[in-house]
Write a structure and sequence with these properties.
Elements (H helix, E strand, L loop, with lengths): L1 H10 L2 H18 L4 H10 L12 H12 L3 H23 L4 H9 L2 H6 L6 H20 L3 H17 L3 H11 L7 H23 L3 H9 L7 H14 L5 H10 L5 H21 L13 H14 L1 H26 L8 H4 L4 H10 L6 E3 L2 H11 L14 H5 L10 E5 L6 E2 L9 E5 L9 E5 L2 E4 L4 E9 L15 E9 L4 E6 L4 H8 L2 E7 L5 E11 L3 E13 L1
Parallel strand pairs: 1-2, 6-12
Antiparallel strand pairs: 2-4, 3-4, 5-7, 7-10, 8-9, 8-11, 11-12
Helix pairs in contact: 2-5, 2-6, 3-4, 3-20, 4-5, 5-8, 5-16, 6-16, 6-17, 8-9, 9-10, 9-11, 10-15, 14-16, 15-16, 19-20
Length: 559
């Protein structure tokens, strides 16, 4: 029996491995409903641009190309599935190892690849261009000819157009080989990459660098939380395992680097992991942000495992349970074989029934959602564009589209999870949601708030003057109170545990503040009586509905 298995394994080629991988992921893409983020990016693809609020445009382009062939889940995911399959093929070739079965077991045992391997997310183009970057970089090290200069510039631009994290791959590669700075041909490649990235930077300029502002300022958290860092460390182990992650990192620690290319691989692994570890010291880090690591990690693992028979044997033993668990997870995503509730899996089912119920309870009114995820979901499975109103949440692409403008002061059906009144959704997977009828919808999301000073250092029990300005290009009449809904400017003081300490409310309605005061108002706030870090939130709040995403946070430090 053993000899028979060994004979079959000897006949397997890398082409067979890629075909197996493709088949598995095509089945998953066909029978798994779209994740909420995928439906959001699907909306991107319907309005192609050089940039979007959250990400560069490559994911939108991938979805647009696939949707030309089919608007189904398979079409939306088609290019992403092919991209990751291509990335894995080049990854195998870069290892220089002829062990297809080892590679197949490795990729089937990595949770990250199996979870993201069939989804239309920015991680797919990022993974593809990370591999292509290393392919071209290896050739560039051997010969700095015009072909490799052009290709290097193209893949560097591709990295940045995929996800901003791609800059880390370029920087850590450069750090591994500082002599590149002496090569004018490398500078030519870099110049080409920057030139190709100019359209996106022009888009950012025309949109007030909204993406950078969000990722670097708005999304940035202040303060260390031990639990967040521990979550990051555990997440990295589970994400690249669960069981096989130990073998991946063991191979990394034991492998002896032999050339400049391998030095770049190793420095990228440690550099990216350490970069996001440091980021976890000041805020939450999404587990998939380190995804580029999987490329050099797989290459180093293949090289080390090929040369160490005992290591390879133990890897197969421990990889078996991991492969089985991941395959069961894949099946559970498609069909609930086991009666267990896992939030990530639950997010991939029941969407069609949920949308049908929303439509049935909307009384034929225009539908508006309380979050971009729900807006994307309802838009895709209803076939009609549904905007997000961005209340009690962060800004997103809907702010740039001003998608709610056409619904201002209209009667709408509002899909939300917090209002007291409304028709509850009966679908158990979406039971927290309801459809509430709003007779006259106020819209304040397009107002821009500026506040001064941006950061305050002061003593205890001091009077602070916060100057606030509301800016808009529309008439003040667009911001009047609507029906039972009253909007006022608020200033709220919080401690570092996000507990509200004090609050001030401007008595003037927003339209009068714009008309009579040119949008200007000053809050006078007393600083706390204890030393520490605090924050002052300046925001527009509408009774019952909540806080609009247009808001400003001022850091307050009491000496």
């Amino acid at each position: 029996m053993y000899n028979r298995i060994k004979t079959i394994a000897a006949r397997i080629r890398i082409s067979h491995v890629i075909i197996i991988w493709l088949l598995i992921n095509m089945v998953s893409s066909r029978f798994t409903l779209l994740y909420t983020d995928e439906t959001y990016y699907k909306l991107f693809s319907q309005q192609l641009a050089f940039g979007y609020f959250d990400h560069p445009p490559m994911v939108a382009l991938f979805i647009w190309v696939g949707s030309v062939f089919s608007n189904s889940e398979t079409g939306v995911r088609m290019v992403s599935v092919l991209a990751i399959a291509a990335a894995l093929y080049f990854c195998y070739k870069l290892s220089g190892v002829q062990k297809p079965v080892l590679f197949l077991v490795a990729i089937l045992s990595v949770f990250a690849l199996n979870l993201l391997g069939f989804m239309a997310l920015p991680d797919a183009p990022l993974l593809l261009f990370t591999v292509l970057f290393f392919v071209v970089y290896k050739s560039f090290l051997l010969k700095e000819n015009p072909k490799n200069i052009i290709l290097l510039g193209l893949v560097m631009a591709g990295l940045l157009y995929s996800k901003y994290h791609g800059i880390l791959v370029i920087l850590f590669t450069l750090a591994s080989n500082i002599r590149l700075l002496k090569s004018y041909k490398f500078w030519l490649a870099g110049f080409l990459g920057v030139l190709l990235f100019v359209p996106h930077m022009l888009w950012q300029y025309n949109n007030n660098f909204v993406t950078f502002s969000y990722h670097l300022v708005e999304r940035s958290a202040s303060g260390f939380k031990f639990s967040v860092t521990i979550e990051y460390i555990i997440g990295q182990i589970l994400f690249y395992g669960p069981f096989t992650a130990f073998f991946m990192y063991a191979a990394l620690l034991k492998y002896k680097v032999s050339d400049q290319f391998e030095k770049a691989l190793v420095l990228n692994i440690w550099g990216i992991i350490c970069f996001f570890f440091l980021s976890s010291l000041k805020g939450r880090v999404e587990v998939n942000w380190t995804l580029p690591v999987i490329v050099p990690l797989l290459i180093i693992f293949m090289k080390y495992a090929y040369a160490n028979t005992v290591f390879r044997k133990w890897f197969y033993i421990f990889a078996g349970p991991s492969v089985v668990l991941i395959l069961l997870f894949r099946i559970q995503m498609i069909y609930p074989v086991f009666r267990i509730r896992i939030s990530r899996i639950d997010d991939l089912r029941g969407q069609k029934e949920f949308v049908q119920e929303v439509i049935a309870k909307s009384e034929g009114l225009p539908i508006i959602a309380g979050s971009y995820q729900k807006a994307g979901l309802i838009s895709y499975y209803s076939g009609a564009f549904v905007p997000a109103i961005n209340l009690n949440g962060r800004r997103n692409q809907f702010n740039l589209w001003h998608a709610d403008d056409s619904l201002r002061f209209r009667k709408v059906a509002y899909v939300n999870s917090y209002l007291d009144k409304g028709k509850n959704i009966e679908n158990p997977l979406y039971s927290r949601n309801k459809v509430s009828i709003i007779d006259s919808l106020p819209v304040m999301a397009d107002l821009v708030i500026t506040a001064e000073p941006h950061k305050i250092h002061c003593e205890r029990n001091m009077e602070l003057v916060i100057k606030v300005m509301l800016n808009t290009t529309k008439s003040y009449n667009y911001y009047r109170d609507a029906g039972d809904y009253h909007t006022r400017l608020h200033a709220e003081l919080y401690n570092n545990k996000d507990s509200l300490l004090s609050e001030q409310i401007c008595s003037l309605p927003v339209n009068l503040l714009l008309k009579n005061n040119n949008g200007k108002y000053s809050f006078r706030i007393s600083s706390p009586g204890e030393k520490g870090r605090y924050k002052i939130l300046i925001a527009l709040q509408t009774t019952t509905l909540g806080t609009w995403s247009t808001k400003k946070v001022i850091d307050l430090i009491i000496n």
